[in-house]
Fold:
Amino acid sequence: MRFTKNHSETNIPGVFTGQYDYFSDLRGQIWTIHSEEGYLAKFVEDKITISNKDVLRGLHGDKETDKLISCLHGKIQLVVVDARKNSPTHGTVETFFLSAEEPSYVFVPAGCLNGHLCLSDKCIFWYKWSQKYTGASTQETVLWNDEDLKISWACENPILSKRDENGSLFKEVRI
Structure:
């Protein structure tokens, strides 16, 4: 990827992270977020969520959608879980901290779950999708605090949606 630096693999096959190559001066910053070269996925939809401090969204995912995730404002804790049944790293959890101060991204392949927690007063979470979003009913939702995953979230009592309060146990997921 020509528009990034410090690209690296993670402990989950297919999940990678890197820093955007950006320009900064007294006026602010300019980032190149996406270029078609170098991706394993063709993206068809962009989404943005704006959250307040301690809002946790996820863990969500499906078997068809790749995602490219960045934080455009504030700071987030991003968690990725390998939910692919045939993966040698099934159940592996990776945690990333993304912020607008250090422009970076995480690529999350289909079959992995992702969730994010807003750590700043407000955060803007931006992600590209390889498939059109067709609703929560077409995705898996796993409990953010599933004991089998042992995720160390930066907030003990996050603000959750009903969907996330009522998620499934990880062992019940069929991706």
Observations:
- The longest helix spans residues 162-165.
- The CA atoms of residues 63 and 175 lie 5 Å apart.
